[in-house]
Amino acid sequence: MTVGKFLCIFNSKRKGPKRMKLADCVQIKPSGNPSICIIWLHGLGADGHDFVPLVPHLEINPKLRSWFIFPSAPEIEVTINNSMLMPAWYDILDMNIDREVDSNGIKKSINSINDLIEQVSLKIATERIILAGFSQGGVIAYGTAFSQNRKFGGVIGLSTYLPKNLELGHHKASRQTEILICHGIYDEVVPQELGREARDYFEQKNHKVQYNEYQMEHQVILPQCKHIGDWVNSLFSNLEIK
Description:
19% strand
C-alpha cells in the first residue's frame, strides 16, 4: 500500500480549534473489551480510512484484543498545493524540510490528539495506548507522546521525522516509552537520513528504539506490517489479560 507522496513542513489556517471526538474516528473494535489501543495518524491528504486495510496484515495477537482508532485531520489550506483545502495535521510552507515550519499548527494537532487520548483513557490506561503516525502524522505522534510526563505503550514513526523546532519534554515517565521507526531507503519525500536522525536523537535521550529500513519509497509495505505486528506483540507479551 502506497500513501501519497507529500512532504511534511508547515503553518496552520484552520478556521478554529475543534475538539476531536472519539465518535468521529474510524474504529476497529475487538469482540470483547479491548486490552490495548492503537491510535494511527494518517499522512497529508489522506483520512482515517487510509490505513484500515493494513490491520489484518499486522497479525497482532488476537488475545490482546486490539482497539484501532484512526482519526482524520481537519481540512486546511496547504500552501505548497496552491492553498488547496485538504486533510492535514498542519500546513506545509515549503518543500525544503529545513525551512519555516508551522509550529502553531503542530501544537493544535497535538492538543487535538491529547483530547482524543483523554477520551480513550477512560477505558484503557495510557500505558496500553500506542501512538502510530505516517509522515506528518508521525510528527504529531512524536510530539504528543514526548511532550508530557506519562508513559505510553509505544510510539511508531513511519516514514517521518523530527522538525528542528518541535519541543519535546523527555520527562522521566515518557522516557520509558519504546519507539519503533520504519523508513524507506528510496524515500524522496522524507529522506532516510531524517529517519536516522530521529533514531539518533531518541537514543541520545535514552529511549529504547528499534529502527528498520526497507527497500521502499514513501509508503508502507506488507513485510513492514509484519514487523510492526511483531513489535506490538513483543511489547505486550507479558500483559496480564483478564
